[in-house]
Amino acid sequence: MAPEVSFYDYIIIGGGTAGCPLAATLSESANVLVLERGGSPYENPSKPDKGNFFPNLLDVSPSSYAQEFTSEDGVYNARARVLGGGSVINAGFYSRAEPEFLKQAGLNEALVNYSYQWVEKKIAFEPPMLQWQSALRDGLLEAGVLPNNGFTFDHIYGTKIGGTIFDGDDHRHTAADLLEYANPYRIKVYLHATVEKIIFETKVFSRTRAQGVVFEDELGKKHWALLTKDYKSEVILSAGALGSPQLLMLSGIGPSQQLKKFGIRVVMDQPMVGQGLVDNPLNVLLVPSPSPVELSLVSFVGITRFGSYIEACSGISFTPSWSRNVAKALAAILNQTEQSSTKMFQEGILNPESLLDTRVRGGIIFEKVKDPISSGYLELRNMNPRDNPKVTFNYFQAPEDLMKCVHGVKIAIDAVYSKSFSNFRYEILSAKALLELIVNLPLNQRPRHLTSAFSLEKFCMDTVMTIWHYHGGCRLGKVVDRDYKVLGVEALRIVDGSTFTSSPGTNPQATVMMLGRYMGLKILQERYFGKYRKK
């Protein structure tokens, strides 16, 4: 049990994808506290494994690893609420950032590579490429997403097999595993610990300085965690793209007009907190298969030159209610389709749930828009840190984003109807039927156009979803400086995806974990030897 008052060199808010590697690194030579609002992924070791991907995301119980929310755009979304953060609930793909991202962030290349390797040694693997994934990869190559780059962690144009955080037994390894690197005598990790606000010291003629935090435990008891007197001690926000800007606002740093609305004392008027929030639009195709398919999450990616990523999963499980929704929509499509001579498909027309059973007999192909221009913002909904803030992403507000989606969906359709993928699709199902299937599913709360299955522009807008790669809200150069220090405040940094101006690589988790290690090393260097210098 946490003491009522305690003192640490570093207080990290959020034991997620960045917070865990950051804490493990800082504990090498400093006393560290990690405050995680969720529980442990180790209580039920098989729960985060590959076969439970969608059931975990769709779990709405109070103990769920994923806290659901719906953006003001009408798109369902989720926010991690567990030690290890998003790495506990994502599709597991591990791929490094593009060089342009690292250069824009001003990161030291040698230290970046060392930090990636530190992560990879513990949790990254080469995924198996079985029949369904291999057929779709070859279909993408046929569709022109070239060249075939084989297996690599690096971000390269063309089609490549990336890394995964699932081992050969389909067991998930997460950012929480990186705490195995920590010095156990210098680190404390409190679970179900919800930070209510950061405490600041404000003096005339001095800059505002973070002093510590107030947090509440699972039983509702308040605790004060304070920084040691060493002037290099810091509070570090690693609560993610929703949590970090939300907590800054609750602590009095943010747009003053919004803070005053909730009676929050303004510590510093910072209008850029909560701004520049971006979510990469996701659109999907669900492709039923006449042949059995393996259970697979994302194993490869098609990286196009026009700004679209194509990924896929197969044989996954839905919750019973979602299975019924898919079966009902599929039945509506099949009943409009000419009867097939294939016995299996005739059975599918009579009983669409036979195409699902407990797992989908088929796969889902994802199209993600890279670097969307459209951006939104985050606002407080109330003063309860346990509640999600109000979020608007403004999907496809920029026409350029919509064109990327249209082009990407066309590539995905070409891959489905390639020769390489022919064993895993029904000839009877046209591309229009596949689009109509998605249009008929309750994937979001957005209205549908009558032409959604005929117009790819309307299809993209109407069926947009999230790939959970939202970022921004405390952007580099706007809210934090190049060292991730909050502008205008002493002893406070933000190390997580809220600082990103774009989502790194095809999937950000590798870079978020790398950044935790990278910044931990840099902070220790500053603490003991002065500012880290590029070599």
TrEMBL record:
Cofactor(s) needed for function: FAD
SUPFAM superfamilies linked: FAD-linked reductases, C-terminal domain (SSF54373), FAD/NAD(P)-binding domain (SSF51905)
Binding site residues for FAD: E36, R37, V82, V195, W468, H469, G497, P508, Q509
Disulfide bonds: C405-C460
Keywords assigned: Disulfide bond, FAD, Flavoprotein, Signal
Superkingdom of source: Eukaryota
GO molecular function terms listed in the Swiss-Prot or TrEMBL record: flavin adenine dinucleotide binding; oxidoreductase activity, acting on CH-OH group of donors
Domain Glucose-methanol-choline oxidoreductase N-terminal: 240-254
Assigned protein family: Belongs to the GMC oxidoreductase family.
Record's protein name: Glucose-methanol-choline oxidoreductase N-terminal domain-containing protein
Species this chain originates from: Gossypium aridum
